[in-house]
Design goal:
The structure holds two protein chains of two kinds. Chain A is 31% helix and 14% strand. Chain A is α+β, with helices and mostly antiparallel strands. In chain A, the strands form three sheets. A five-stranded mixed sheet of chain A has the order 2-1-5-3-4. In chain A, helix 3 packs parallel to helix 8. The N and C termini of chain A lie far apart (51 Å). Chain B is mainly alpha-helical. Chain B has a single domain, classed as Fumarate reductase/succinate dehydrogenase, transmembrane subunit (3 helical TM bundles of succinate and fumarate reductases), CATH 1.20.1300. Helix content of chain B is 68%, strand content 0%. Chain B has five helices and no strands. In chain B, helix 2 crosses helix 4 and helix 4 packs antiparallel against helix 5. Chain B starts with 13 loop residues before the first helix and ends with a helix. The chains are: A alpha+beta, B mainly alpha. The complex binds iron/sulfur cluster and FE2/S2 (inorganic) cluster. The site of iron/sulfur cluster has 16 residues of chain A, from helix 6 and helix 8.
Chain lengths: 278, 146
Amino acid sequence: MTRKLQKETDITFHIRRYNPDVDDKPHWQKFIVHVEPGMTVLDGLHQIRETQDASLSMRYSCRMGVCGSCGMLLNGRPALACNTQIFDIASKALTVASLPNFDIVKDLVPDLTPLFSKHISTYPYIVRDDADEMLNPTGEFFQSPDELTEYLQFTYCIKCGLCMAACPTMATDPNYLGPQPLAQSYRYTKDTRDDGFNLRKKVVGGSHGAFRCHYAGECSNVCPKGVDPARAIQLMKRELVLDYLKLRKHRTKSAILGKPEGVKRRPEIPEAPCFTKE
Amino acid sequence: MLQDKRCPNSIGVWGWLGGGRWGLERYLYTLHRLTGLGILLYFILHILVTSSRVFSEKAWETWMGVFSSPVFKIGEFLVYVAFAYHAINGIRLILIELGFSVGKAEEPIYPYKSSLNVQRPLMIVSIIVAAVLIAAGGYDFFALAH
Ligand code: SF4
Ligand code: FES
């Protein structure tokens, strides 16, 4: 992407503040930030904290678009503050607010608890009936590269909640599972090692599940990792419909590959350490 | 300790419309909802009005008189517009929801392309079909005055 060369300048940050100890509702506050090329919105917020108002609260950790903590509403659009160059979205002023569709804990900190609890409700892990093998594995589960590609895209989710904030269905139905959990339910359903579709379909096929999505597509537009939850949700709906019509192909879960036989361990490779936890 | 007090921050119906810098599909989504509600409203009115025939012929004729005014003619056309859009866009949505025209999962490479790009030709075709239906209906409604 070509970016215009920008000179350092003052930019007004309009920040939506809320302090649960003193405020009844959020209010806007103005800060002037001296912006240099290369500064992200998160850098700008740090500058405000360091030089103007140390009480400004935000959540961040990695500062490089990996941890998913710094989701905010920037100029009315959900984005990661650490992943957004100020000059890309503003030349004079910008607005920064907490992610909508999540309650505000303080200032720019949304309460992401509903995201995590909905995520957990969709069994976002490999479900199999061979518990013994899961606890004491005798080999690896077979999976071909093509099978991996069928769900790999959806594994990149960093649980930032931007998709949930952008979703218009979430805006009027707080019980809707939302793009992130639905995409993850598809990610595990499509995993050949998994056998949990029958468990998952009860949650994602319910009245607040996948069929509440009508493809506004905003989740995929705002996702900072290219996860494309909208695609995952439609593919999940296809699985649910096929299952309902009893047309869903039965897939045997991946076989366990035994340990390789007739080969010697290379001496420089140490044995795996013992389990530290029973 | 985490504060117990939270400030609700759901954007409600405003969230259907969004803040202005959204993709086209979001507006189609909103229009789909609004036209759906409009058709439902029409349907209820339609049942109420036609049921007036049960009471007397006079009641029926009075209602029909009311509905022959130009305002209602335009209203009727709007119902048709809503229907044409809702039907055609509905077909697009059914296809998409059955997993057609959203593409397969792929490795995300920046700048990201999504399933929205894959279904866009379908979206454009459905909008054109809806527009043609609306234009044809408009011709029938207004030019070929009955
Ligand atoms: S799907 Fe994308 S936008 Fe949604 S939580 Fe995961 S990384 Fe964030
Ligand atoms: S701080 Fe980790 S994603 Fe922004």
